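Chapter summary example: a protein plus heme C.
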Amino acid sequence: MRTLKLVALAALAISAVACSRDGGSSSAPPADAPASAPTDAEKAAALAALPAPYNTGDLSNGQRKFALCRSCHTITEGGPDLTGPNLYGVFGRKAGAKADYNYSDVVKAAGFVWDAEHLDKWLADPRGFMPGTKMTFAGLKDPKDRIDLIAYLKVETGYKPAP
Ligand code: HEC
């Protein structure tokens, strides 16, 4: 009787292990799976490759500051537009140029390409930098917070430094 119970328990334990193996993260992804999100090491390398002063940015502070943007913006590849456009690939893209997003006339007509310098001015005071924009964000006043946030955005939105 006792042995039977033990055998049953052992069988249960084995099947539990098998289950967690199947569904667990240790299982190898199928060969055709999409490229996985960058690891922390890859993010650290991407950070180090940024031009100064962004290479010294504090990614965790940048992530905390991004909480101010998250209600209106997603940053993942293919993420949805919310009140504001998805920001994946924003560096190197013309302002107001993401397809299917309905920008204000002033942003559509801005004519520049987003880089760290433009983003720094925009984030400090969006409506001062581009009067008439519909981005109702008061601005991020601390220059160091802007450096950290821009570094974070560069690392997270697929920015590739010029070779
Ligand atoms: C209350 C909503 C809201 C918040 C908060 C907000 N944004 Fe926006 N954002 C918008 C809207 C709306 C637009 C489109 C502006 C326009 O067309 O005038 C925009 C546009 C932008 C653009 C230009 C995108 C392009 O394709 O040209 C960038 C870059 C941007 N926001 C970054 C940020 C960052 C970074 C933060 C956080 C510090 C932030 N935004 C916070 C609503 C918001």
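Key point: The two ends are 72 Å apart (CA to CA).
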